Amino acid sequence: MSIKQPFEKVVEEHGRTVLRVCRALLAAPDADDAWSETFLSALRAYRELPETANVEAWLVTIAHRKAIDVLRSRQRQPVPVEELTEGRTEAPTTLGVPGADDGLWQAVRALPDRQRQAVAYHYVAGLPYAEIARILGGTTDAARRAAADGIRNLRRNYPGGGPA
Amino acid sequence: MNNHDDLFATQADTDARADTDTLARLHRTLERAAEEEGLLDVAYRTVDSPVGTLLLAATPRGLVRVAYDVEGHDRVLDTLATRLSPRVLRAPRRLDAVARELEEYFSGRRRSFDLPLDLSLSKGFRLLVQQHLPSIGYAQTRSYRQVAELVGNPKAVRAVGTACATNPLPVVLPCHRVLRADGSPGGYAGGPAAKTTLLNLEAAA
What we know:
The structure holds 2 protein chains of 2 kinds. Chain A is mainly alpha-helical. Chain A is built from 7 helices and no strands. Chain B has a domain at 124-204: Arc Repressor Mutant, subunit A.
């Protein structure tokens, strides 16, 4: 019999971090979809999760796969014609909307895949590089280098970043 | 830990309020999807009442737990996760009918409950006693001994007390109508004051 905490506690404790990870990987509303897919998958598998597991690393691993799925399905789907016609081409402006400053996430999303993932999982989710290497494949050092390269690029390209 | 956290801390502050709204919306989506896919083993919500905030929890079979504040809602949820399933989610919709009937009860407009119940937290003699509780009508009371006689085991007075004390569905299964032989309220999961409040409410309605 399990001594696992109610799943609601998992959502409470990690929902915000997973949302930020999803935003670092995908633009809204894809980020929202990835969040939903992540927690639904997690709920499905929760009973079988070992009690000793690092829940946040487990969630980030699921989010990583879901984000890849979303990106792949986007690449496969041609943009529907109607979305190219007038009135549907521009995203609604977020100027002046509190909290809608997506600037940093945009800069993170513009990074090459590995750098983006390493930055998101280390700096946003707070995972150690060994855990990130397990998610991405490759060595701990490679994960550390990818994050360092990513941060260097961010400092260069993100206006608010400034010199370290 | 590292010297690049400033970048992300500023963005986190910018996001905080919008995130709260987004997370509330995403939570509702998760509740719906979990219900549709049959993953919502235990849904719960809380309601305010004259006897304090009540926790209501339901499985797909029915209402499985009503808990008083003094029982510690977090502890009750932990117990449900352990005894039933850890797939526990705050998902009010499954409890809409329960909340409505309780509100009617507390406003004196309802005298009995008409809800699917899941009694899987009880078994044996306790279950037998709890199942008999609704036969004590609104605003009536019985002694522990009378209930023992009712279930055909007149000597099990103490066991009836235990069955009432471990009632997983207080208010709905009216253990508050079972009193000591001298008419004093006796123990209650919600505290003696809650028991008296319910008895007074029924007497006044």
